[in-house]
Inverse folding.
């Protein structure tokens, strides 16, 4: 198994990307192919004195910029690091790709090169949310803003497969994001999707799930359209930032509070780790015939290291095969009903 | 001015509702009409020994239960406390109503009895969100799950009027909730609404606003459909609860952290106050020809006291008149363009 890493994508590329790849290769023994400008990558690699038997370089002469239109990557930059990384997965030289570059371009390139799984109309981003007792995967986290009931059902199959293989759960609890637990609550899309999900017996559908219940750990998989999913992620980030800043401001008003905060620092740090996106590293684009991890543009070495590990994890646990099998079972069940 | 308070609605009615009304009448000198079973209210009032010259009772023989269908309140319980309170506003005996009871019923009754403002198709709930430097009003917070562009434009007019009068701002910054700042980001409804809002020159429209920016205080008014708005509120509550519980769990792992937490308690309390829904007390149902404050079912005396103050504030600042004026200006502008 090899993981193709877009060394040129992301706000801190190539420095942090190469560092993260070196760490992943060393700490988890994951073979990595760094894709991008060869001499730049060689310069970065030279900073690390440890032997690097499981790191290769694949030259790519172009770079997709953050503000490039997604279609540009494919049409005008066929030798860009994102495209070359995707080609490595397509040809079977690598089993997964990871990019912290232009998200739209990475999604477009991966979808075109790896292709969609038969029965999946639209790939979806599966992001992890922390919960009181673990985590949940939410999809779609932003790839598809306007969705149909059919799209959401496919997201449910994909999220279920992901939770089965990555969370190691036999019957993941699948919930539909809504604004009330009753099946009559929600917008038209949610109500229609709830009815469809109730009528199937392949998934362990537990009904609608509200914001509070997600963080309480009520479900393993949260289904929603990409507008709602992205909203959830960004509101969560916003509230977390607001709370940290407000607590800090209050603490700074008194010396006693400051001493208290100092004593609490280890607890705060543990807590920050739980929330930190870098801990998860990246979100898989599910529904493709191959693994593509989309990392945050602000990814540092730690985020990249973890994204590479998550990509390897998805390959080793055959998430793609599991999604294919879920789609097949669902098609069979539909044919029998 | 008098505020009609539904003394029978809410999880802690009538005890906490009556207590909150007594406090509002005493602390802010707001005249209150308590609506509900007379003897029950009299028993509650007897607990307070202070003179209560500005508290009246209006008997209502029925109570709308939390699980009653909204239509039930109107058709089968015409002498319920919610209906009687709305009638008081309709007749002009009271200038605003406040209820912590069945939200759907309160909205249905208020809409039917008070009537919609001409030019407003659907009333919307305006909820307050805390921000780093103050607060913002978000609407719709849950009254209308599926909305049209026209609905959202009307929400913008109403939110603007509310922010003008309650936040005392000359040109409130109006933002459209989306998942990216660029006007091309968002679902179909958001993109179409963005275009419409950009084409008008009555409101200070600052464009799309993302979750993080809301809490950073980037806008005074957040426009969205009721599904997204309610999602924002519930995700915020969920994240806040998750963060508090996680910090507590981490703190309890070490004695030093526990001491730190003890020293930080005043700062934490200040912080909790900022987030607490009870500080705001209730959310106005905007777009009606009269003031109706919808309070949380879990409202305690403090929440009710603050909701009554917020209702009086809306009356004294003529929020309804300001919305009417906004709609009139908008209609004129549309006719001229």
């Amino acid at each position: 198994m090899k993981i193709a890493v877009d060394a040129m994508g992301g706000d801190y590329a190539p420095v942090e990307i190469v560092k993260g790849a070196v760490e992943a290769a060393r700490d988890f023994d994951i073979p990595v192919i760094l894709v991008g400008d060869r001499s730049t990558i060689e310069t970065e690699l030279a900073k690390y004195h440890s032997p690097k038997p499981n790191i290769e370089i694949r030259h790519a002469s172009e770079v997709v910029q953050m503000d490039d239109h997604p279609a540009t990557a494919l049409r005008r930059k066929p030798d860009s690091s994102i495209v070359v990384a995707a080609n490595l997965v397509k040809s079977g030289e690598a089993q997964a790709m990871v990019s912290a570059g232009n998200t739209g371009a990475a999604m477009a390139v991966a979808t075109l090169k790896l292709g969609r799984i038969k029965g999946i109309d639209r790939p979806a981003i599966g992001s992890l949310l922390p919960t009181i007792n673990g985590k949940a995967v939410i999809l779609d986290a932003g790839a598809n803003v306007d969705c149909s009931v059919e799209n959401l059902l496919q997201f449910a199959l994909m999220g279920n497969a992901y939770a089965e293989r990555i969370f190691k759960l036999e019957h993941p609890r699948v919930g539909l994001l809504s604004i009330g637990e009753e099946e009559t609550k929600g917008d038209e899309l949610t109500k229609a999707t709830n009815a469809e999900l109730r009528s199937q017996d392949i998934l362990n559908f537990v009904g609608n799930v509200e914001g509070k219940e997600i963080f309480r750990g009520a479900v393993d998989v949260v289904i929603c359209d990409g507008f709602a999913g992205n909203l959830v992620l960004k509101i969560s980030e916003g509230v977390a930032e607001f709370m940290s800043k407000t607590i800090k401001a209050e603490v700074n008003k008194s010396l006693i509070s400051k001493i208290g905060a100092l004593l609490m620092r280890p607890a705060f740090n543990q807590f920050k780790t739980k929330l930190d996106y870098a801990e998860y590293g990246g979100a898989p684009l599910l529904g493709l015939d191959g693994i593509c991890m989309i990392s945050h543009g602000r990814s540092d070495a730690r985020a990249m290291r973890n994204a590479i590990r998550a990509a390897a994890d998805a390959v080793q646990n055959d998430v793609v095969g599991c999604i294919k099998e879920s789609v097949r079972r669902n098609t069979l069940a539909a044919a029998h009903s």
